[in-house]
C-alpha cells in the first residue's frame, strides 16, 4: 500500500550536510606547530583505545581536504560541519595564535566556499590541549577563559567567511566520559571532577558566546551541540519513573536549564549533593552561561532506557563509548541501564528513530521558537568493499531513512528543525573504538587512504538533491 505513498518533502531552505571532527579525520598530529591534545595522550596510552589506534594519521584529511571537498561537491552536499583543533590554532592552549594552524582552516574554508559548500564550525570537539589538562583540564576554571580566548582567535581569522559557530560538541561526553567513567580522554574517574568539569565546560561555552559576538558583531550565528538523551523508564512503575527523572536530570536538564534558563535544576543539585556541594558555581556564572543562542544542535543515535535496580544490584552504564568499569553518571546508584528493544548497529546501539522525534518535539515545547539543527545522526556497520569495489550498506540507508522520517514528522508537528548533518562523511577514528567502527557514508581504506562512496552516499545525495525522502528505503518492504 505504501508503494504509492508520496515522498516526504522537506522545507526548501532545509540545510543538508555531513559532519566530522578534527581529531577523528585530520591526522598530521605533529605538523605545522600542532601540539598534543588530551586525545593524543590518551590514545597513546596502552589499553585506552582498541587496537592501540591513534589519530596520528586518521583519514589524512589535513592533506587530502581538497579531494574530500571535491567529493562533497560531487555528492551535492550543501553544508559541512567540521571542528577546529584548538592545539593547532593555539598550541599549548594559551599564548599567541599559530599562523600555520589558522592557515589550514583558512584554506579549508576557502575551498569549501569555492565549491559552494557552507562551512559550519565547531570550536571544541574534545581535543583539549594537553598542557591545559596538566593544569587541571576542565576541572580548572581558567580553562574556560583560555577557551574563550581561543574562540576569539578563530573567529577573528575565519569569521568573515564562517557564519555558523558551535561552541562545544557534546559536553556530556567531555565531562562524564572524560572525568566520570574515564573511557574518553583525559581518562579520569571521579564523579565530583565530572560535575566540576561540566560546569566549567558550560562556563567556557558562555564565555565563548560572548567572545564570538564581540568579535563578529551582528554576523555570528552561535550554537551549542548537545547529545541529549531520549530517556525512557522501562515500565510505568514509580521506581522506574524516578530513575528516568534522575537520568533526565543528569543528561538533559543539567544542560538545558542553565543554558536556556540560567539555573541548575533543584532536583539535580539534590541528587548530587553527596558528590559535590557545587561551590565551583560562582556569582555571575549562570548569567554568562545563559547568553542567548541562535540555534541548538542535537546529536542523536539511540534512546536511553532506565529502570530501578534490584536491591543491592548495580549495573554500570554500558554505553556505546566503550562502556567502562566506572559509571559515567555522577549519581546513578540504584539505576539500571537497559538496551532498548530491536535491531542494533555495529556499536550495539538499538535503532529507534522515535527517540529523535521525542527529543525534537520536546525541544519544540520547552524552547519555543528556538531553531534546532540535527548536528549528528548516523550509524556504524561492518562495511567492506566488495571485489568490484562497491560498498553496499543497506542497513545504514534504512537507519537514515527511519531517522529522516522522524525529522520530517517532527517538522510536520511544528518542531523548528532547520537542518540535518549526517555523521559522518568519512569512516574515521571512532574514539575508544579506534578505526574498528565505520560511521562514514564514504568508505576509507585506512592503508591506502582510498575513498569509496558507499551506497548510502549515493542515496543521501539523491535525498539532498530532491529535498525529499522516498516513502520507503530501497530494497525494503513497505512500512506502514
Ligand atoms: C559523538 C561524537 C562523534 C562520534 C559519533 C559516533 O557523538 O560521540 O560527536 O565524534 O564519532 O557520535 O559515536
Structure description:
- This protein has 480 residues and is an alpha/beta fold.
- The protein has one domain (8-465): Alpha-Beta Barrel (TIM Barrel), CATH 3.20.20.80.
- Helices cover 38% and strands 15% of the residues.
- It has 15 helices and 15 strands.
- It has helices at 22-25, 38-43, 61-75, 86-89, 99-114, 130-134, 142-158, 171-181, 191-215, 238-261, 266-271, 285-289, 354-366, 394-412, 455-466; strands spanning 8-9, 15-19, 79-83, 118-124, 164-169, 221-226, 231-233, 295-299, 304-308, 335-338, 372-376, 417-423, 442-445, 450-453, 468-469.
- Helix 14 packs parallel to helix 15.
- The structure holds D-gluconic acid.
- D-gluconic acid is lined by residues 21, 24, 169-170, 173, 227, 299, 376, 423, 430, 439.
